[in-house]
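Subject: design request, 297 residues
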């Protein structure tokens, strides 16, 4: 089955394609745990480039990839899912842990008929990238890991788990109207940026993604973040890999970056200066330049 045929296969869609100004096609794929909403950006000037899958991290949805997807889709097909329990891929019937999310990503790759794929993952989405690449080795051409590193010690893992316990406690008091409280979106964004963008709607969308996360799914994924299987998958990578790290990232321990690169075979490292955890948003032009220099686009 060709990619084009797959996109219109009624057996895998629960709703017709919704085309937004011709830029992208939105699919809702059926899964036992619930719907999976996927944006597919067709290549505007196809040059034979391998399709690119963008995987978002914990606490967000595919929404923050929109500018990246639009730019990359100049020459390549780009696939951006909202992982189950996030964004538009709700409700879920049961909590989806990290490995459930990877199974969904594999399902998306197979349902869209992607014989070859380049994968770009961010934060926890980069951990999913490694686990997914381990399962579909024959399909993967290149990997880009953004704002991710391995834990070097058990103490680091314990600190992370303690922080996430506090975060889960705070998640119990979320409500959608918080996104409209003046200044709150900005306050929530400070940890993720070196310089918080002026775009209020962008900040509000990011905050709304967090406010509407499925709690049990978010908790289950967070509990898997220190799983040693992630590093093991990194050590087993067989394709060219790039790690993009941001010097002012307050979310991941930047002191672990060199160790992470040493674990992953054939892994390049690119640092971004004066940038926080979301380089595709904070320094979009620089981030895209790095992607263009590494991906086949």
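Subject: RE: design request

Done. Sequence follows.
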């Amino acid at each position: 089955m060709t990619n084009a045929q797959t996109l219109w296969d009624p057996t895998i869609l629960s709703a017709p394609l919704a085309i937004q100004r011709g830029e992208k096609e939105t699919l809702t794929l059926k899964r036992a745990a619930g719907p999976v909403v996927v944006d597919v950006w067709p290549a505007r000037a196809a040059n034979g480039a391998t399709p690119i899958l963008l995987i978002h991290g914990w606490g967000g949805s595919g929404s923050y990839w929109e500018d990246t997807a639009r730019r990359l889709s100049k020459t390549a097909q780009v696939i951006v899912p909202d992982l189950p329990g996030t964004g538009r891929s709700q409700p879920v019937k049961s909590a989806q842990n990290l490995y459930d999310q990877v199974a969904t990503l594999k399902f998306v790759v197979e349902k869209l008929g992607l014989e070859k794929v380049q994968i770009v993952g961010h934060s926890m989405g980069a951990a999913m990238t490694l686990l997914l690449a381990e399962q579909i080795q024959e399909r993967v051409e290149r990997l880009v890991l953004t704002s991710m590193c391995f834990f070097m010690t058990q103490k680091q893992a314990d600190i992370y788990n303690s922080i996430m316990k506090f975060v889960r406690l705070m998640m119990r008091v979320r409500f959608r109207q918080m996104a409209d409280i003046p200044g709150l979106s900005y306050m929530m964004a400070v940890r993720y940026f070196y310089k918080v963008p002026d775009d209020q709607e962008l900040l509000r969308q990011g905050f709304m993604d967090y406010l509407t996360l499925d709690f049990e799914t978010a908790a289950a994924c967070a509990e898997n973040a220190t799983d040693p299987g992630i590093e093991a998958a990194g050590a087993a990578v067989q394709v060219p890999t790039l790690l993009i790290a941001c010097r002012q990232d307050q979310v991941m321990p930047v002191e672990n970056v060199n160790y992470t690169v040493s674990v992953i075979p054939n892994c390049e490292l690119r640092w971004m200066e004066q940038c926080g955890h979301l380089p595709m948003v904070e320094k979009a032009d620089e981030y895209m330049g790095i992607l263009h220099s590494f991906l086949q686009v």
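Residues 3-294 form a domain with the Rossmann fold fold (CATH 3.40.50.1820).
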